[in-house]
Specification:
membrane, 65% helix, transport, transmembrane helix, TatC, cell membrane
Length: 328
């Protein structure tokens, strides 16, 4: 006889998951329905014209199950109401509750793990951006020229702000990947196939929005505002306020350029189509100017228009792409 080894057993025993309990119960219900469908009942007789067995339960119109009486017994015996069997037994319900709690704890643990990875990526990206902060500031202040700082700590906090924003931009691929890894187990095969190209396209569109804003929109906006200066009124920009203006002006364009991706995904799942977008074109033009006024760093009409026009162009591109997808 072989010696007993504790490794032959798992302790503590592995608890069944919520999905396995539900699937097992569904299989039992389906098997019971299949057996009921092929069950042969008694033949009708004069004493029993409907062919109902004497010892079987009969369901009333109210949904209650009534125990059938034996034909050979006394007909004066009252019917007995039998309680319906619960859907899950007490042990099965307890197992499902424990599995649900374990599943929630597992999801929260994984979410914490993903958030920690994203935070580490932002810290590393901020460190890299801080190392090149002089280069980044030279790129950002180029359209405005010479700047000033009015408070002793203004320059320091401006450096830190540029480093953190640059770190978030550098870590954006990692952030998007971690979000994708968290939600991908709940996706179907078709949805997983779609997400394989969403992250690269999203990063590319975000970068295109930043480059478009920095190269075309920002210089025009700065030149427009400097144009209000006169011989008596000279433009002296504070570095802190100017960097706040640049960040608030550039980053929305990165998000705006994600509009075609969002609309195409909605069209892929048949939530919208090109005809729907064409019918709502006037409403979207109005909404684009409202959004431009809401996210613009200044309340002037120029900044609002500079944000609304790219949104309208991207909307028309989305309509064109969706019309081509519908033809295929």
């Amino acid at each position: 006889m072989e010696a007993f080894e504790p490794k032959d057993f798992e302790y503590p025993p592995k608890k069944p998951s919520l999905d396995s309990v539900i699937r097992q119960k569904r299989r039992q219900v389906a098997l019971a329905k299949e057996q009921q469908a092929f069950k042969v009942g008694p033949h009708p007789t004069e004493a029993n014209p409907k062919g109902v067995a004497g010892d079987e339960n009969v369901e009333t119109t109210d949904g209650d199950v009534v125990a059938g009486s034996d034909n050979t017994g006394d007909s004066s015996v009252g019917t007995q109401i039998v309680e319906q069997e619960p859907r899950y037994t007490e042990m099965e319900q307890k197992m499902m509750d424990e599995a649900r709690d374990l599943s929630l704890v597992g999801h929260l643990t994984e979410l914490r793990h993903r958030i920690i990875i994203m935070a580490i990526a932002i810290v590393i990206g901020s460190g890299i951006a801080f190392y090149y902060v002089d280069v980044l500031l030279a790129l950002l202040v180029g359209p405005a020229g010479k700047l000033y700082y009015m408070r002793p700590t203004e320059a320091f906090f401006t450096y830190m702000k540029v480093a953190v924003v640059g770190g978030i931009i550098l870590a954006s691929p990692v952030i998007l990947y971690q979000i994708w890894m968290f939600i991908v187990p709940a996706l179907t095969t078709r949805e997983k196939r779609l997400t394989n190209w969403i992250i690269p396209v999203a990063v590319m569109l975000f970068a295109m929005g930043i480059i478009f804003s920095y190269t075309l929109v920002l210089p025009a906006a700065v030149k427009f505002f400097i144009g209000f200066g006169t011989d008596e009124l000279e433009a002296l920009f504070s570095i802190g306020q100017y960097i706040d203006f640049v960040i608030a002006f550039i980053l929305p364009f990165g998000l705006i350029f994600e509009l075609p991706l969002v609309l195409i995904i909605m069209g892929y799942f048949n939530l919208i189509n090109s005809m729907f977008l064409k019918s709502k074109r006037k409403i979207f033009i109005l909404l684009s100017f409202i959004i431009g006024a809401a996210i613009s760093p200044t309340p002037d009409m120029f900044s609002q228009t500079m944000i609304a026009l790219p949104m309208i162009c991207l909307y028309e591109i989305s309509v064109f792409v969706l019309s081509k997808m519908m033809k295929k």
